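task queued by scheduler; priority normal; single chain, no ligands, no partner chains; default sampling; output format set to structure tokens
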Amino acid sequence: MLGAVTTALPTPAVAVTPSQRDRRARILRAATELLESREYERIQIRDVAEGAGVALGTLYRYFPSKEQLFAHVLQDWGATFEARAPRPGEGAATDAERLERALRAAVRAFERHPNFFRLITVLEVVRDPLVTDPYGRYSEGFHAALRATLRDVHPDDVDAVTTLAASLLSNLLRAWAHGRISGAEVHRRVQHGVRVIFAGARPARR
């Protein structure tokens, strides 16, 4: 099991003026583009600064560490999934169908951008609050997207169903990221897992 990583870094500068917000946005955009084509460990901060057209010192004023920068990249990327997640009444008749669609959409997103899932495995063990806060917003946004698919589940059970579904997806994606199962198998097990969540496990044949 990986140990927690602790850091003590300066507080990032707040982008107040339009030019500051533009520089910060360019940094995030450059980091996102690099992550789409390169694994997190292979990205150098100076490459991000060059891609954003800012000085290295400027980048560090907004994002004092690489982990902080990419936690915000993950948060912004996750928001695009939340916006695309199926809502109640959008082409699916049941909560199970809507939840399965949402989980499959997440799988497809990570299949297109596998480096983003690998980034999650890096950030989830960092204990710097300036990393855990945006990472937590990413995680909460994903859980909110799953909760939004549950229209008919009893309110007391929504969090349990959401947690089970998110845990199922996380475990399957880890196996996929390590090459133990294929993407097609992830989709198959998502479908089966959602059926078990809603219908329960079948008794063994005797």
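post-processing summary
- Residues 155-177 form the longest helix (23 residues).
- Residues 14-63 form a domain with the Arc Repressor Mutant, subunit A fold (CATH 1.10.10.60).
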